Amino acid sequence: MTHESIASRILLLRGQRVMLDADLAELYGVPTKVLNQAVKRNSRRFPTDFLFRLNTIEKSEVVTACDHLTRLKFSKALPYAFTEHGAIQAANILNTEQAVEMGIYVVRAFVHLRELVAAHEGLVERLDGLAALLASGQESTRAELRAMVEVLRQLARPAEPQAKRPIGFVTTDDKATNAAAAAPAPGRGRRPRAAPGASDR
């Protein structure tokens, strides 16, 4: 499972990035009930910045927004939300091989998501600055922006694939075949020069 697939299960609730108990239990290879029972037995290890319980409105919004959580619609229990620290703490108390291994991936997914958000925020700030410069109407600014757009287009353009060398030894027959294939077909390419005196005939 990739960081991106795990990160897709991370939600933003109450200003915090969290993962619901159903998703975390699936990653850790245990039923949701087993995970929550282990958390209750170790409640002192889960302060409010590690774990909180969704209210009815939050649950309804999450079920509506996330297709893979539609199964929670018919559950009477309100799900728990684990922050990054809560997720790794849950892996520690379960202490199974899969939980410990997947706990590392979950933490990396949280970190990966933070990096993406930080990069996005930086990009938004730069675009806002460019928009302000463009609004100033200075011709030099417009020229600079056009140059930047052209550079971005070149960077976005996929590179042309380079011809690959054949694998293994190339025999004389192979070289002759390749040379024949590369030679222009009759009637194409450069026209043959007339022999001296041909125009006099």
Describe the protein.
- The longest helix is centred in the middle third of the chain and has 40 residues, at 97-136.
- The protein has helices spanning 3-7, 21-28, 32-41, 56-65, 84-94, 97-136, 139-156, 172-182, and strands at residues 11-13, 16-20, 51-53, 80-82.
- α2 (21-28) crosses α3 and α5 packs antiparallel against α6.
- It has a 4-stranded antiparallel beta sheet with strand order 1-2-4-3.
- A hairpin with a 2-residue loop joins β1 (11-13) and β2.
- It is globular and about 65 Å long.
- The protein has 201 residues and is of the alpha+beta class.
- The chain has 2 domains: 3-112, no CATH class; 115-154.
Short description:
The chain has 201 residues and is of the alpha+beta class.
Instruction: Summarize the main sheet.
Output: 4 strands, antiparallel
General form: globular
Q: On the 0-100 scale, what is the average pLDDT? A: 74
Distance between the termini: 80 Å
Low-pLDDT runs of 5+ residues are: none
The total of helices stands at: 8
How many β strands by DSSP? Answer: 4
Roughly what percent helix? 55-70%
Could you say how many structural domains there are in total?
2
Alpha-beta classification:
alpha+beta
Query: Helices and strands, in N-to-C order?
Result: HEEHHEHEHHHH
Roughly what fraction of the amino acids lie in strands? 5-15%
Order the strands across the largest sheet as they lie in space.
1-2-4-3
| Rg result | 31 Å
